[in-house]
Design goal:
The complex is a heterotrimer of chains A (about 375), B (about 180) and C (about 280). With about 375 residues, chain A is of the alpha/beta class. Chain A is about 35% helix and about 20% strand. In chain B, helix 1 crosses helix 4 and helix 3 runs antiparallel to helix 4. Chain B is globular. Classes of the chains: A alpha/beta (about 375), B alpha/beta (about 180), C alpha/beta (about 280). Chains A and B meet through strand 1, strand 8 and helix 8 of A and helix 1 and strand 2 of B.
Amino acid sequence: MKKIATGNKAVAEAVKQAVPTVVAAYPITPQTEIVEQIAEFVTSGQMSARYIAVESEHSAMAACIGASITGVRTFTATSSHGLLYMHEMTNWAAGARLPIVMANVNRSLGPGWNIWAEHTDALQERDTGWLQVYVSTVQEAYDATLMAFRIAEHNDVLLPVMVNLDGFLLSHIMQPVDTVELGDFIPAIHLPYAIDPKHPAGYGTLTGPDQQFKFRWDIERSMRDSVKVIEETEKDFAKRFGRKYDFTEDYRCEDADVIIIALGTLGKEAEVAVDLLRNEGIKAGSMRIRWLRPFPKLNLKGKEVVVIDRDYSFGFGGIVANEIKAKTGIRLYSVIAGIGGQEVTYDDIAGFVRTRRMGEEFWFGVNAHV
Amino acid sequence: MFEVRIHSRGGQGGVTAARLLAMATLHDGKYATACPFYSAERRGEPIVSFVRIDDTPIKVYSQIRQPDMVVVLDTSVMDVVDVLHGLKKGGRIFINSAGKREFAGFECRNVDLTGIALREKLVVSGSPILNTAVLGALAKMGIVTADSAKKAIREMFSDERNVNAADAAYKEMSV
Amino acid sequence: MLKCTSACAGCSDSLALRYVLKAAGPDTVMVVPACCTSVIQGIYPNTAFNVPVYNIAFGAAASCASGMSNAFRAAGKKTNVIVYAGDGGTLDIGIQAMSGAFERGTDFLYICYDNEAYGNTGMQRSGGTPMGARTTTTPTGKTDAKKDIDMIIAAHDPPYMATACAAYPQDIFRKVQKALTFRGPTFLHILAPCPPGWRYPTEKSVEMGKLAVKTGMWVLYEREYGKVTIGPQSKAAMKNLLPLEEYLSPQGRFKGIDTKVVEILKQQIAKNFQRLAAEEEAGA
């Protein structure tokens, strides 16, 4: 059914259809509409979930962990400082092998207090063992949330999944969204090690140096196995509902000389820049990375690559640019733009391509090649 | 692509107006994105919402710099905000006002939405609701069809007075 | 506090704050976690405050103040360290830090201005939301009771704590001045009626505050070294209690409240008065 919804409302709608048993969440701008909508679904009887209005984000994830280990479907949402406050527990959730799904509305980090879009919050979670996908339209936010539950709960994965959407730029924008009749797309959850007093076990007990590394390897193995699960899930989604997704969204890349890579809405607006550049005779293409964890195989051979990072790792460089460099060995042009919701238009993106200097870093607004 | 910027104050329904416009556009078979731009939640603060309308999916997320049309729901914001900023040459303006206004170089239309809202007793927490009435005005100006406007209003509001207000706005505007 | 804050029309937090700052004087630092007051300061590069304001993360105000106070005192400075936090940052996410700071005897004043919801983020429920109140996350009315943070603080045995209300600004002024004469942790809990959150016309904030006291929903009292003194406005209320309905009906957040819940609220009011009166009697 086609309707108009904000990114936040679309996520909430998908959560409703996924039928979680427990939702534990704490409000933070710009995520609030997700939890408010879910609270409204619960009180109006449209959702049978228990909504726990916890007293902090650390508690939100801890509550999800407690619920999830009993073998039920759980969900939470947060943003920025909420995600940071959760960090101890996001590590715990992945280590505990719990298929929790979380929507993170990407927002910058203070001080100063800035509530607008930036990816540093989620990128700081990239080492935790969470799968991460970044969406760029309201439709994709809805679709990705549905798929997240199936992927997380798959027996070959059993890791938590984070769905990222840009603060305000996507969370609050209204676009058309086509909702689906789910059917049996998301199978019933089955956690093999769910708590059962009939089969008592110690969970996360004291573990020595001769054992711990095995558990950590186990997470990595599942992370690698998740690649096939993601592919298969997205294929099935396309078959049932007609919309195709992949690890990256490639636009006019086949014959491109220069490729723009960005996450989230910037990655979508880059397509407009591509059309602009093509009209000028520059063979540009856009490759929007969707899945950051597991990190995808990128086909960049022979291309000049311009990466736009809406984030930074101080003393090092743009996080996405460096991940791409590390995995592909490619020499690229690293642009730092969009920090704290800094406005970046398709004109600006086209400008980055026109004035690119391979091997260098450019801070938009600071206007210096570093 | 047709870009509309809506000026109002917090609590007046400017954000909902953008949403209704997007919904109506959807019924017209087009694509629309709508978004508010605000900082913290504060009643009475000047608010801007944006609506983009096109025949194909819209990939632009950056702010509208040169709108094709400006809608002013609360003329008091004009004391603090340059509502015409960036309006394209020959662009269109709609103002919620009883008296006619003129702006050189732009086509300006007005309807007393506040008066209509008060007559229809569409008032919440002391503020007249303008976001449904304005759809009627926008329909008269050809931004959406009247049928789609009413469809959108009925999807969102069960109170038929909202449709009446839109109807009244449609009738009261001279084109 | 300077003119032109970014507060909502009818904001009683900014009203209370003006008197807090008047009472505290210039040798004062405010520690402000994420809350409405974060917004009221205005946007960089301007600030509406004429004292240093340290903004800090939501749950960290009291621990930040603890560090700051210790540093000032170590340097021989008498600067007032005042935490100015909302109910969310005090009763919920900030409670751990506050409890720790009080337990360690930190020399600071902790002021909680209570608008009974998460105002900054759009009126979601907090531990301070009263039973029966509608918020965006309790759309049919909160089913849990308001957390009694005053009892929790009292259990930490601070030298001085008090309740206040934005509708009685001179009372706030007096209590802040008094609190700052004590060494050690002091606590002031100010009821701050909120037009967008409680859903009443913006010019009625003072009236709402007074009704809260006159119906007993809010009790004005002080606790000095454990000894309770009930304020004259509440003493008057105890003798001649206004029906609770007079407080509930003008507020949209209580629209449609269940009569059973109203009964529970009334019982709680009676219980509170009983307890405080007994404590006052015992300490006399």
